[in-house]
From TrEMBL:
This is GatB/YqeY domain-containing protein. It comes from the Bacteria. Pfam families: YqeY (PF09424). GO terms for molecular function: carbon-nitrogen ligase activity, with glutamine as amido-N-donor.
Length: 147
């Protein structure tokens, strides 16, 4: 079952269960997926859908950080709930050790050894871990291994 089909099923269940929070998030994601489909002018692949989902999750995490800085617990709490709903649709996340192993393998593949090779390594790694690892974690591990 692809993401859109799963969202439709979950949306119906959220309506039946009167789960307004989940329903709102699902509608927002479906809207983003449809906007992306219109922008691309074709059906979305699973990779495209994952990109949209990642974007939505990142926006909420960034906003959550801002709300926590501003001591707006009311808004932060709402965003935590939205993030939890979105994370249900994300693929299982890789552990730090697994990401570290991928970083080492990729560095060997591209022949990276100095900080100057950072962009080359990141460009090769990100497609491999797309949706499965946080970009900040990948960036930190690449910097550790390159220094």
């Amino acid at each position: 079952m692809n993401l859109l089909e799963r969202l439709n099923v979950d949306m119906k269940n959220a309506m039946k269960n009167k789960d307004k929070q989940k329903l709102s998030v699902i509608r927002m994601v479906k809207s983003s997926l449809q906007n992306e489909q219109i922008k691309l002018g074709r059906e979305l692949t699973d990779d495209d859908s994952l990109t949209v989902l990642n974007r939505e999750l990142k926006q909420r995490k960034d906003s959550l950080h801002e709300f926590e800085q501003a001591n707006r617990e009311d808004l932060a709490s709402k965003l935590r709930d939205e993030i939890a709903v979105l994370e249900d649709y994300m693929p299982e996340q890789l552990s730090e050790d697994e990401v570290s192993e991928i970083v080492k393998e990729t560095m060997a593949e591209v022949g990276a050894s100095t900080k100057a090779d950072m962009g080359k390594v990141m460009g090769a790694i990100m497609p491999k871990v797309k949706g499965k690892a946080d970009g900040g974690l990948v960036n930190r591990l690449v910097q550790q291994h390159l220094s």
